[in-house]
Each structure stands twice: as structure tokens, then as C-alpha cells.
Amino acid sequence: MIITIRQQASSEERAHLMALLCRITGSQNPITTIEIDGHTVIALDHQHLDTQASSVLGEQSAVERVLPIKTAYKLVSRAFKAENSRIQVGDPRNCDSVAIGGPAATPVIIAGPCAVENREQLLSTANAVKKAGARILRGGAFKPRTSPYQFQGLGVEGLYLLAEARQLTGLPIITEVMEPDMVETVAQYADILQIGSRNMQNFPLLLAAGRHSQKRPVMLKRGLSATIDEWLLAAEYIIAAGNPNVILCERGIRSYDPQTRNVLDLSCIPLLHGLTHLPIIVDPSHATGKRELVPTMSRASIAAGAEGLIIEVHPDPNSALCDGRQSITPEQLQRIVRDTHILAHMISTEIDFSQVA
Ligand code: PEP
Ligand code: MN
User: Fold this and answer.
1) For residue 35, how far is its CA from the centre of ligand 2 (angstroms)?
2) Mean pLDDT, residues 139-143 taken together
3) Are strands 98-101 and 86-89 parallel, antiparallel or unpaired?
4) 166, 139 Cβ separation under 8 angstroms
5) CA of 342 relative to ligand 2 center, distance in Å
6) What is the pLDDT of residues 100-122, one digit of tens each?
């Protein structure tokens, strides 16, 4: 259940409610309040609460409403919030401000190299993706590589270069954070924190991304073989820890067929739109692993209703230090941006989510 606290509730009324909640839940976990869209809410797993306890809660003077939610995830659910969340990216004092999701949103293209390799490579790619119509720059400074002998990224040096690229182009930047202790540092530079597939269920990292002081938006990539419910519960960790700015990213899931790196689960887009208010970005680069498939799967993702794309772009894909096989050129990106605008315009009729099961 989700309990919304009345804005005018006094501190005594709030304290009384907290004490009551501790009593009826048996204080298994500390009861925490979360600020979402100007409301203070408390999320609980109501299976432990009987109907009588819920009606007692509803009668408390501090309580505005008690919303029963049957799914294990609460705050990410469409049942909690009917309208699409709009995630605002970029500090207007140092770059463009870009909205991802929300009512009548236009899809946002995020593009850039898999890894920040050097200053020249990053700055030239940043300029080129901006010219091609991308709105946000991607680039990995800390790279989670399968082999310890592969390029691991430039680390903090890569963050400085990303900040320089932002200053040059005005594009907000997204980069991956792999460790809880690095969240504050990465958040000083990044406009969006990326949590990669391999870390989707790194719970200390999810909590750190939820709690960090700047509350930067977090793009949570789907785990290599995560179910939709596991993914939504991972997003719930971040929001329940205090950061409501979460974007989901479908990047393909493991299958038995080595022809593609992963299998792009396109059906998850309309499915998630029924289950959650969070925006969904698709990564056709990691989903396919083959650059020739990226334009088609980009179009398919937009047609399926994705709020944006994140695409790997390199000025010379064959010489990329990481994921060159799936990287496209800035010229190819330009055509994807054009197609995205055409398709988004064609499908801009409102979807009635109340009709989605
Ligand atoms: C990436 O975005 O470069 C990356 C490592 O992605 P994923 O976590 O989806 O594999
Ligand atoms: Mn990559």
C-alpha cells in the first residue's frame, strides 16, 4: 500500500502515524517517507496488514489517502501514478535541459561512444552527434568488461572529458557508475547516472543512486536475464531510497542464439507502459550487437512507443576500443534521428492507459 501524508499534517500527527505504523508492521524495516511530485508518501508491503489495520490507518489525521497496491512494486506502478513521469535532465546553468517521457513527449536520442577513449575521439563524436540531432551525449568512463584484459575505461579522467564535451556542445551527459562509493563523484559530472545490466540487482548501488545528494536521474538498464518484475523492483529500490527520477532501458536479454548479441524485447515497451509510469529508452546497440541491425530496431522501438533511444556512435567504428561491431557512424545516426521524428509524429495519438490490462 501507499500512504499519502496530508501536506498540512502537524509534526505531532506525523509522529503519531509513524508510531502506529511501527506497531502494526512490527518494525521489520524502518518506516521511511519519500517526496514524490510534491507529496510525502510511505510505501509498504500491505500483505502483512489486515483490512482492519488499513482502515485504521485511513482514519489517521495525518493521512490524506491509503492506496492498496497488489503488485510487489509500488512506487513505480501505474496504479500509484496514472500519468507518465517526465524526467528532467540537465542543469540549465551548464547545458540544455531535456525532458524524457511525460505527456505528449517527443522521443529523445542519446548517442555517443561506448567508451571515452581520448579527448579528440570524445569531442569530435560529441560535435558530430549533436549535429546529427542527438539531445544527450553518452560515453563510458568506467567500463564493466567481461575480460579483465579489455580496455576498462579512463576512470575519473573520462568524467573530466565528458564535462568538457558538455561545455563544448551544451549536451547533457550520461555515464555509467559501477560502485556505490563512486555515486557522489560521478553525480558531480554526469547529468544521468547509468546503472548497467550487470549491476541491475546490485542493491547497495541502487540504494546509493537513490540516496545521493544531487538526485540525478538514473537510467536503469535491464539485467542480462532479468524478468520485468525484477527490473521494476530494482527501480523501486532507487525510488524508495529517495530518488524518483528513474528511466528504464531495455537493452536486450540473453538467449541461446549467438547470431545477435541479445534479443531485443520489443513487447516489453507496451507491457511496461501498462505497468509503470516511468519512461522507457531502448538500446538497439547492445540489444543486437550488429550495427546493420541498429537502424531497423531503432525504428521498431519508436513505433512500439519507446520514449527514446540510446545508440553507440563512433567516428571510426572499426577502430573503437569497445563495442565497435555495434557502433554506427554519425551519418547513420542522422538518418535514425530523421526517421524517429517522422515515426513519432505518425504515432503521436494518445494511448489510453486505463484500457491496458
Ligand atoms: C554500455 O552501455 O556500454 C553497457 C555496458 O551496457 P549494458 O550494461 O547494457 O551491457
Ligand atoms: Mn557498449
Assistant:
1) 34
2) 98
3) antiparallel
4) no
5) 27
6) 999 888 999 999 999 999 999 99
Which atom of ligand 1 is closest in space to residue 140's alpha carbon?
3
CA–centroid distance, 197 to ligand 1, in Å, is 6
This model's pTM is above 0.90: yes
The reported pLDDT for the residue numbered 25 is 83
Residue 65, pLDDT > 70, answer yes
pLDDT for the residue numbered 305: 96
Q: Which three cell numbers stand for residue 316?
A: 571510426
What pLDDT, in 10s, does the model give residues 163-221? 999 999 999 999 999 999 999 999 999 999 999 999 999 999 999 999 999 999 999 99
Rounded CA-CA distance 304/322 in Å is 29
Scanning the chain, the segments in alpha helix (DSSP H) are 11-25, 51-58, 119-132, 156-169, 183-189, 203-211, 228-240, 268-275, 284-288, 294-303, 330-346
Q: How would you class 168 by CB atoms within 10 Å of its CB: exposed for 0-12, middle for 13-18, buried for 19 or more?
A: middle
For atom 1 of ligand 1, the residue with the nearest CA is 114
Pocket lining for ligand 1, CB < 6 angstroms = 114, 140, 144, 196-198, 221, 251, 286
* Cβ–Cβ < 8 Å for 83, 277: yes
